[in-house]
Amino acid sequence: MTRxxxxxxxxxxxxxxxxxxxxxxxxxxxxxxDPAKAAALREAGIEAHLFGPGRPLxxxxxxxxxxxxxLDSAPPEPGPDGTRDGSGHDPVxxxxxxAIAALPLTWAGYLSTTGVYGDTxxxxxxxxxxxxxxxxxxxxxxxxxxxxLALWREHGVPVHxxxxxxxxxxxxxxxxxxxxxxxxxxxxxxxxxSRIHVEDIAAVLRASMERPRPGTAYNxxxxxxxxxxxxxxxxxxxxxxxxxxxxxxDPATASPMQRSFYSETRRVRNDRIRTDLGxxxxxxxxxxxxxxxxxxxx
Length: 298
Hints:
Keywords: NAD, Oxidoreductase. By secondary structure, the protein is α/β, with parallel strands linked by helices. Helix content is 37%, strand content 17%.
């Protein structure tokens, strides 16, 4: 029997997973907010449906029929007034929790963020660390995680949580920024970030599908939390370019996204993906990741 993955939110990470599964004969269906993107996805062999904030699936039963594996990659909706104040909610649970609970799923996953741990001043966290989000996005993710775990406890939906670090990969990396002339090297002493290559995200999700452990959370990150300015300088060296000039971080001139990004620092452990899922990262540090990106682009 052909396995079917349904993805709420066919974005960068989810599409990487989808393509690898389709190459092995899986059916893939999922959602986008954009009618033009839906048409392009259908051309690529994906059963695309429109879905987004305030727009549930037109026919949930028909869209979800035959789904064996389900992934929620949709970001939380903004709060009632359209702002990120922590009052947003997961649109998938808001619109389709009952339909999902009725499915005979083998596996379900929710893509969360390591932001649920909040600021630890650079101290290490693992999956058993307290969830202390320090900003609105983190609070919304904690709420969404709780909602998915409730589906597991109350309805037996085989839910797994994946707390992703900063995502990079082809088309979305310091290498691309340097080549496009848009790179910046912002320096904030003591600040480190965990990151993860998009192909390693797909590898972790696939490993979980093969070894389901409902109710489990996994940190999805590489082995070496590192300041962003060091990664930028390393990528510039690989390209034979001078790194962008160092810019001291200034919250007064930073964008809201930058302020959120730089407001917290923590080091995230990834032991569980290795011990429980047997995952061996293809890009265990940013060095392997940047080297591969430079090679692939010629």
